[in-house]
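Hi everyone,

Forwarding the result from last night's run.
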Amino acid sequence: MERVVIKVRHNGPYKVTGSITLIDADDNEYDLGDRGETIVLCRCGGSTTKPFCDGTHSQIGFEAAERAVRESGEPA
């Protein structure tokens, strides 16, 4: 199985690389089209292309609370 990597970008989106299948809350699979094996997911909530990032985070001054948190709740 190919490794999937999720990179948390500082005050920005999640960059997901690898063999990706994206499924919505209704169990529908997204057509990732020409995105290939890299997608960038919004985490600021302001994107007009959700779940994908459109760069709005830089326009609204998004500041993330943490970069990543372990299952225990401790910072990674």
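The longest strand covers residues 5-8.

Cheers,
N.
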